[in-house]
Amino acid sequence: MGTELGRPTGARTTATGGPLVAENEHSNSSTPAETLDLIAPPSTSDEKENGNFASDELSPPDAAAAAEDEKQAAKAETTEYPTGFRLVSIILALIMGIFLASLDMTIVATAIPKITDEFHGLDKVSWYSAAFLMTDGGFQSCWGKAYRYFPLKSTFLAAIAVFELGSLICAVSPNSTAFIVGRAVNGLGAAGIGTGAYTIVAFVAEPAKRATYTGFVGMSFGVACVVGPLIGGVFADKVTWRWCFWINLPIGGLSALIIVCFFRTPSAAQPVAAPWREKLLQMDPVGVVLVMGAIVAFMLSLQYGGQTAPWNSSVVIGLLVGFVLITVAFILWEHFQGERAVIVPRLLRQRAICISCLFACIFVGSYYLVIYYIPIYFQSIGNARPTMSGVYNLPLIIATTICMITSGMLISATGLAVPIEVGGAVLAVIAAGLLYTLDIDTGVGKWVGYQLLAGIGWGLAFQIPIIAGQASAQPEDISSVTAMVLFFQCIGGSAFVTAAQAAFVNRLVHTLPITAPDVDPAKVVATGATMIRMVFSDNQVPGIVIAYMAGIKAALAISIGGAGLGLVICLFSKWTRLNFAAVAV
C-alpha cells in the first residue's frame, strides 16, 4: 500500500506528496503543487548511471529553464483543483450520492412487512434485497470501465439518472415483479454512483488532502447503513413504504444539479479514445453476467439451506455446485480477457491493490453484518420499535462517522495508512468479540460501550482500501481500481450478510424446539423480529426470545472471523508512506 500514485520508474515526490518531477543536481528547486498527473519523463540509461534524471553536462541556463518549465506546468495542473465553495459543493454532492446509494441497501429492511402486506405474499421477499445486491455487485467494475472510456461528468450523471429511474419504478410499482425490477435498476445505478463518487474525489482533491475528503464521502455510507432501517420504519409506520423511494428523487436531483454547475472534468480525467466496439468489449458483458449468476446462486443457496429446503436437498446442492462452477468460469474468463476483464489481472497482481481488494471484501464485509444484526438485537430482544432501535444504534453510527473522518485526516497528515488499518482491525476484532457476549439482560453501559469500540475499529480502517488502492494506481487506472475495491466490498458484504442470515435462521429453528416446543418455527421465521410479541402468547415469547438470542450470537460469531481475517490480511501490507518521497526501483 505504500506505492505512489502514477509514479514512473525513477520518479520522486516531494515530502508533502507533491508533483512527481525529475530531480536535477543543478537545481534544488521543487514545486509544492500537489497533482495527480504531472509525471516526469523516464530516465535514460546514462542518467540512471549518474543517479540523476538530468545530464551532468546540462548548462545552468538550460537547467534554470527546465526548472521554470516544471513550475509553470505544475502551476497549470494545480489550477485544475477546485477550491473554496466550489470544492465544498462538489464534495457535498458526492456525499449525497453515496448516501442515497448506501441507503437503498438497508432502508427496505424494516419496510418489508408493509410491502408484503400490499403485494399479498412472501414468496418473492428474498429478491427484494437480492435484486439490488446482484446488480450493485455485478456492475461495479463495469462502471469502472465506463468512467475510463466515457466522460467522467456525464457518466456520473448517467449513473444518478439510472438510480433515479429505479427509485421511480419502485415507488409506483403495482406488484412484486415490478418492484423487483425497480430494485435491480436501483442497484445498477448505485454501482455507478459509488465508483463515480470516489473517482471524482481522486481528481478534485489535492493528493495531500485526498484521504481527508475520501473520509468525508465515505462516512455517509456508515450513516446511511445505520439510519436506513430507521427511516424505512418511520415511512412504513407513519406514511407509506413508497416514500422510501420517493425521497431519492429530490436528493438525487440536487446532487446531479450541483455536479452540472460546479464540476469541470480535469484534463487528467479525459476518456481513453477507442472505437465503440472496443468500448463495448471493455465493459466485459460476459463477465458481468457470470458475476451476477454467481451472486444469485450463492445467496439463494444460503437462503434456502435449512430454511425452505434441507441442506442436502437437490435444490441447495445444485445452487452451491452452480455457484462454484460459475465462479471458476468467471476466473478463467477474466484471465483470458486481460485488459478487457472487469477485474483487470494486471491491476490485481499489484500487491497493494490485491490487499486492498481482499481487505475490503473480508473486513469491510463483516461490518455490514454488524450494522444489520445490532438493530435486530434491539428489536427482538429489547422489544424496541424501529425508531428507538435507530436511537440505540447512535453510538455505532457516531463513532464510525467520526473515525472515518479522523482516519482520512491522519493519513493526509502523516501518509501512514497501514498502522491505522492494523489498529482499527485490532479494535474491531475485540469489539466483535464483545458484541458476541450480548445477552438478554445486557445492561445499557455495555451495549453502548461495545458499539463505540466497534465504530472506532471499523471506522478507522473502513476507507483505507479505497485510499491505498487509488494511491497505487496510474491516473488512467483510478476508476478501474476504485471499481474493483468497491466490487469486492459489495461481494463481501453480500456474502457476510447472507451467511449470517443462514446461521441466524438455522440456529433459531434448531433452538426453538428446546426453548418453545409448542411454537411452529416456520411461523416464527415468517413473523419477524418486531412482531413476535404481538403474534405469540405471553407464555411463548420468553422461549422465542431465548432462541432469537442464540440465532443472533451465531450471526455475530461470523463477524469475529471476518474482522480477524481482515487483521491478518492487512499485516501483509507494505509499511511505507503514501505519496511521500521514495525512489521507485
From TrEMBL:
Membrane topology type: Multi-pass membrane protein
PROSITE patterns: MFS
InterPro entries linked to this entry: MFS (IPR011701), MFS_dom (IPR020846), MFS_trans_sf (IPR036259)
GO molecular function annotation: transmembrane transporter activity
Region (Disordered): 1-77
Gene3D superfamilies with a match to the protein in the record: MFS general substrate transporter like domains
Record keywords: Membrane, Transmembrane, Transmembrane helix, Transport
Protein name per Swiss-Prot or TrEMBL: Major facilitator superfamily (MFS) profile domain-containing protein
Domain Major facilitator superfamily (MFS) profile: 90-585
Bias (Basic and acidic residues) ranges: 68-77
Pfam families (UniProt xref): MFS_1
Transmembrane segments: 87-113, 155-174, 180-204, 216-235, 247-265, 286-305, 311-333, 353-374, 394-411, 418-438, 450-469, 481-504, 545-572
Low complexity compositional bias, start-end: 1-19
Cell compartments where the protein resides: Membrane
Highest taxon, organism lineage: Eukaryota
